[in-house]
Amino acid sequence: MRVDRTACPGQPPVPPGEEVLTHSRALQFWLDPANLATSRDEADPVVRTRTGPTTAFQVNDPSLLRKVGSDEETFRFWGPHPSLRDFNEHGVVGLEGAAHRERRAVMRPAFAASRLTGVGPGVQTCTQRLLADLPTDRPLDMRVEMSRLACGLLVDCVLNSELAPETLAGVAAARSTLSGGIFWRYALSPWPWVPVPRRRASRRALAELDEAVRQVRANHRPAPDGQDLVSLLEAAAPGEPHVVQRDIRALLMAGMETSASTLAWACYELGRHPHHQQALRDEADAAPDPSRLQAHQLPLATAFLHEVTRLHGIPFLVRRTSRQTCQGGVQIPAGALVTLPLGALRRDRKRYPAPEVFDPQRWLPHAEPPAAPAALLAYGLGPRYCPGAAAADAMLPVALATLAGSRTLRPARPGRKIGMSLELTPTPKGLTMYAESKHP
């Protein structure tokens, strides 16, 4: 067993838990830093790969990767793909170019720093309320429970609304089905004769999401200045309720997706490294007012989430060429699939010493050598950079600290193999845990 040498200051190294994380052969390819040009001199900056009838081009050079990810004129986002029409319906996720930038500009005031400064206490209160419903006497599917937590936080603290408990539970249970259905519909689009799994389940999941959007609009609490997200979207599309409906649907799904994945993987690492649970509690207790936490008061919780993203974040991004181009000496035709291997970059030994070790301390303010959070590309890059990134950075550390402070997470089946589900954002598959009360 490998020993985790990332114990908290003043504590001896602590062996990690016994859970074994397994990756499919395809995912291992995306996570292998040996494919990067900076890791092997002989690696090509762009590599042509082929799976069945589809030819894809993987960008291995880090500097070229940033160029490709930021050039929206040549490399289009995957949102407009026909296989995703049921999800985006040409809302903000499916728009491209100027139309996408204009819609993002509408939302920008809702994510201004001045509005996010005091969001912490609200996140803490909402997290405590959602965690109070967790049973302590039976194993929990953390993928579903963290989806419920992420959706509840998004609706309450970002969309200024609320969902009925049964609707929140329904959306949380449907998230994985909807996300997996979208992924497989896109992945199998080159093979139209291959049946997409869970097609009926995906339709039911989409109906759950639409009901949640309906309740978000019905229960919306407008901000006095009209600068909250739902108010801004409605003001920008007067008389077009279907446009607002589509945008809220896309934002609800996208915001819940990334946050749920991050929190679920955080639970996985807390189960493997129980000493971090106590460290997170100690940090929160040391805040000036532990009942009103803010993200900037929680450097360890923030570092913990950075490390979760490094090891478990989206393994690759996808683009499609709008015209023929030459990159890295390779001719790429129009309409080609281009992949950006973020997972391999996050495991590159030239950037991260001992990259296989879960070590939140590498992200602390005074760590040596200093790590750059921007290198994680946690929220994408270029014109498709997540518009709600600042809100996530303000909410998730507080949510994690509140979770660690009120519950003790323990794996329900130590030694069980944990897989990575193939969804829009990979989440731990088969992760069941007990969430015991800190004070029985």
Task: Report on the architecture of this protein.
The protein has 440 residues and is of the alpha+beta class. Helix content is 44%, strand content 12%. It is built from 15 helices and 13 strands. The strands form 4 sheets. The chain has a 5-stranded mixed β-sheet, covered by helices on one side. Strands 1-11-12 form a 3-stranded mixed β-sheet. It has a 3-stranded antiparallel β-sheet with strand order 5-13-10. Helix 7 packs across helix 8, helix 7 crosses helix 11 and helix 8 packs across helix 9. The longest helix is centred in the middle third of the chain and has 32 residues. The radius of gyration is 21 Å and the shape is globular. The N terminus is likely disordered.
Q: What is the compact description of this entry?
A:
By secondary structure, this protein is α+β, with helices and mostly antiparallel strands. It is built from 15 helices and 13 strands.
